[in-house]
Amino acid sequence: MNAPNELAAVAGSARRVPTYCYQCVAGPDLLTVKVVDGIATEVEPNFCAAGIHPGHGKVCVKAYGLVQKTYHPNRVSSPMKRTNPRKGRHEDPGFVPISWDEALSIVADKLNAIRAQGLLDESGYPRVAASFGGAGTPQAYMGTFPAFLAAFGPMDMGFGSGQGVKCYHSEHLYGEYWHRAFIVAPDTPRTEYIISCGMNIEASGGVAGVARHADARIRGLKRVQVEPHLSVTGACSAEWIPIRPKTDAAFLFALMHVMLAAPRERLDIAFLAGHTASPYLVGPHGYFLRDPASRKPLLHDTRSGAAAPFDAPGATPALEGRYEADAIEIGPDDEVLAQGRLQGTTAFTLYAEHMAQYTPEWAQGVCEVPAATIRRIANEYLDHARVGETIVVDGVTLPFRPVAVTLGKTVNNGWGGYECVWARTMLAALVGALEVPGGTIGTTVRLNRTYNDRHKSVKAGLDGFMDYPLNPTDKARWKPKPNIRNAYRTMVPLAADGPWSQALGPTHFSWMFLDETPKGLPRVTLPDLWIVYRTNPAISFWDTPGLQEKMARFPFVVAFAFTRDETNHYADILLPEAGDLESLQLIRIGGTKYVEQFWDHAGFALRQPVVAPEGDVRDFTDIATELARRCGLTDKYVDAINRGIACVPLKVAGHDFSLPANQSPSCEAVWDAVCKAASAEVSEGREVHGLDWWREHGTMTHPYSQVEWFLYPTLERMNLRFELPYQERLQRVGAELGRRLHEHDMRWWDTQLLEYRALPEWHDFPGLWDEALRDAGAEPSDYPLWLLTARSMQYAWGGNMAMQLMKEVADNVTGHRGVIVNASTARRLGIEDGDEIELSVPHRTTRGRAVVREGIRPDTLLAIGQFEHWVTPFAKDIGNASLNSLAAMSLKLTDSTGSGCDVVRVRLARAGAKS
Amino acid sequence: MTRWAMVADLRRCVGCQTCTAACRHANATPPGVQWRRVLDVEVGEFPDVKRVFLPVGCQHCDEPPCLDVCPTTATRKRDDGIVTVDYDLCLGCGYCAVACPYQARHRTPRAVFAYGGAPAKHEAKRHDPARIAVATKCTFCVERIDSGTAQGLTPGVDPEATPACVNSCLSGALAFGDLDDPGSNVSQLLRENRHFRMHAELGTGPGFYYLWDKALPEAAQ
Questions:
Q1: CA-CA distance, B25 to A395, in Å (whole number)?
Q2: ipTM score above 0.95
C-alpha cells in the first residue's frame, strides 16, 4: 500500500494541496496546488506520487491552466436564465442572473413535467437527452450526477459531441471484440520496434505516454511513423513515411503479404495454431465446418488424419491446407448451407491466399510508399519479433515479442478503419505478439463488464472464443425500434448495449436524422430537455454551422457552464458548477486504462477544494442531490450511490458505509462514505479512512502486477482462442442484419453492410471522397487537397480554449497559429507563411493563416485542434480555421460501425492581403 | 566549487511546453514572457525533413555577453555559474537583450495581465512591480537552489531544490546539476552522451548542454 504524505507546508500562510487533473483521456495526473493566503498560485507535480505513477508523477501542460481557469474573469459566476425566447447564432440569449433556487426549480419543474408525461416520446425516444465531453473524463468531475441520471430513468446519451464517431471508433469496437482492447497500445517499456500509422502518442498519450516512449527511445526502441504530415510524434520517431491519406490499409496489407511470403518459421506457428482460429476449417459457403452433433467448429487433426472439434483433447491442428470432413455448414439465421462430406480450407490458408494479391508493388501504387520500404519495414518487424523467446514478468514466464503496431485517429475510424484494425491485430498475431510482453496490447474495456478489470470481462463464448455482447441480429431478438435516436442497437451490433454504447453509436445520426429520418426508423425528434456538460458540440462536431442551426430548435437546454460558449449560447439555463480546484470527488486510478495508462499500482485519488469557490457556484454533487430531491428521486439516487455509481460500492469488505436512503446527503457525507469504502477496498478491509485523511494524503493504492497488463495468460488459462483471422461471426452478423433491415424495407445501410466481410479487402477508400464531391455536384479535381486534423496536447479534451496560458504555450508548437501547408504547394499557389488563406468545400468556405512547412505532403493540409469559436471568451479572437466547419455529416462517409473520420477534400487559395 | 548547469536531451524532448507553463507558474512571469520555452525547428525539404524540439532560455554562460554590456552592474555572475539580474540596479536599457545571442532576455515596460485590464486574483497576488521595465530572464530558479541547498538538499535530485522546468519535464529531457561534481546526474549524462552547446563558437561558455546521441564506446570510458 502506498499513501504519499502531504508535501511539507511552504513558507508563511502557503500550503500545497494534493488533487488530480483528469481533463483528458490520458490522465489522471496527480498534482499539488500551491495556495498562498487562500489563493491558488502554482501547479506542481505531486512529487510524492512519483513512485506510483507511470509518468513519474509529472503533470500534463493542460493542468497548468487550472489556476487561470479558477480565476477567469469571464466565468459564469451564478445561475442564469435566458430571457430571449428566440434562439439563433445571431440572437442575444439575454442571460440574466438568477438564484440557485429559481434555477433548480425551473429545471426540476421541467423534469417533473416530463416524468408526468412519460419518459419516452411518441417515437419511443427519451424525452431527456444528455451530452458529456469525450472519453468519459467528465465523469471525473460530475460528482454524484451519474446517480441522478440512473435514478431518473431513460435518457438519450447518443447526441454526443463528436466523440463516438470522431474517436478511435473502429479500434474501440473491434479492439474490444478481438482482445478486450477498447484502446490499443504497445507494451512500451519492453517493445523494440513500433510501426505507428498516425498514432500521435507524443501529443495524445499524456504524461505516461510521453514518459514511457521517451524512456523507450533512449533504450533503443525504433519507431516508424507513417502519416501524411510530420507530427510531434513523427519528429520523435526514427523514421517518417509520408503516406497518402486514408491508404493505411494498403500499407498494412502489404506488410502482411511480405510476412506471409517469408519462411513460415519466422511466424509464430504455435500461437497461430493454438491460440487463434487459424486452423478452423471453412466450408464452401464461407462459414466454419462444424461437427454435426455438437456444432463445434472443426479443425484437421494431423495426428489422427481426420477432422476434430476445435477443443478435442490432444488434437494437433493443421494450420494450412484443404481437408474433407463429415460436417455441417451453418449460415445466417441458423440456415444449414451444406452437410455431409464437405471440403474445408483452414482459415489461415484462406487468409494467406487472400493476402497474396496485396503485394508491396501494388501497395506502392495506392499509398505511395515505395515497395522496397514496405519490404524493409516488414522484415525489420520480423527481425525484432523474437519468435520463440520468453520473458519473466513478476515471476511469470510469458512469451516475449517486442514488436507492436499502433494506429491513430482517421486511420482507426471511418471507412478503412475495420481493415486497418484487423490488419494491425493480425500483424501481432502472425508473430504471437498479441497481448504478450513487448507486443500489441489493450488497455481497458468499456463495452464489456467489468470496467475495472479486463480479465474479469473475459467470459467463454461460442466456438472457443471470448463472449461478446453483440446486439442481436436474429429474427426473434433484433430490435427494429431503437431505444435512442442514433439507433446503435438496431444498426450497430458491435456497439453492444451497455452504458457506454449510446455514445459509441453513430452519434451524428441523432443530428442528421432530425431533418429527415430514413425509412424504417421512428421519426427522430427533438428532446424536450437537453443537458450539456463539459462539451461544446457546436465546435467539436462536424458540420458545425448546420449543427448550430439544429441546436437553435432544441426547446429547452440546461448547460453546466464555465464560461459562455457556442453550445450554451442556445441554452435556457446556465448552471455554474464549482470548478476543478473547487470541488470534491474520489476516482479510481491505476491498473490499466485508456491511453498508455499502465500502472504498477491501483487505488483511488481525491480531487478536493483547493481554494474557496469563486462566485455563486455549487459542487456538482450538491446540484445532483438537490435535483434528486426536487424530482422526488432521493431514495433511488441514494440507492445508486450506495450501489457504487459514485466510484465504489459503499458496502465492502466487511464494512457498510451506506447512506440512509430517506434523506438528502450532504456533499461531504457522500464523499466521506465513499472515501471510507475505497480505503477499505484498497486495504482489503484493514484500514478505513474518512474524508479528512484523504484530504491530507490525496491517494491510496496497492500494488498491481504487470502480468495483469496482458490478456494472453487469461485466454490460455480459459482455453480460449483469439477470434482471428477469419471473421465468420461478423460475416454472419452482417448477413443477418441485412436480412432484418430488408425485411423492414430499410436499404439505406446496404453499403455499410458490405463491410461485414470474413476477410477484409482493400477498397478505394480515398475514392469515397471523390464520390462525395460528385454527389455534391462538384468536380473532385477542383478540391484536390486533403484537409486533416491532429490532436493538440495543449487543448485536447481540456475545455480550456479560454485560457490565455494555453494559447501562449500552444503557439510555440507548429500549427497552432494556422493551417500547415506544404512549401511547394504554397509556392505554387502564391502563398507565403502567415498569409490569410481560404479553404473551400462545395457551398462552404472558411479562413485562417498559412503555416508553410516542409514536413507535410504536398497534397495535404493540417488544421490542428478545433477552433472557430464565436462566443467563448478569448478563444473567439484566435482566428484559426477548423476542419469541423467544413466537414459534412454524411451517410456515405459513415462506415458499418457508424463512424466517420476527420478528412475533408478542399480547395486552397490565398485570401486577403499579404501578412 | 560548484557549477550549476542544465542538460536537455533532444532525443527525449517532445516540445510539449510543459516546462514553459511550469516556468510561467513558478516565476510568475507576465503573459508572453517565457524564460523557458521550446523551439519547434524543421530542417530539410520534403520528404527528407527532420523536426526537432529545442528547449532554450538563459544559458548561464561562463562569459556572459549580457554582463559585459550592463552599464549598472545589475547583471552579475555568481561563483556557482548562475547569471543574475539585480532589479534595483537595472535601468532597463536593453543592452543586454541586444547582446545576448540566445534571445533570453525580456523586458516588460508595463504591467500586463492575461486578460488585459485588471489582474486576476492569482496575478494580483504575485505581481512584482520591481520587474517592470527591467531586464528579466531565467534564474535557474535560484531561490529554490539556495533554499534547497541551505536545507541540505541536492539541486537536480530533490524537487524542492530543482528548477521548476526540470521538475515538470514529462519526458525527462531536462536535467540539472553540478558540473564540477563528477558524480552528479549532469556529469554522468555528459559522459555517456554526445552533446553540444548552442553558439559555443562565440566563446560564451554556455551552462546549457544538448544531448543528441549516445557517446561512442571509447568516449564513455
A1: 44
A2: yes
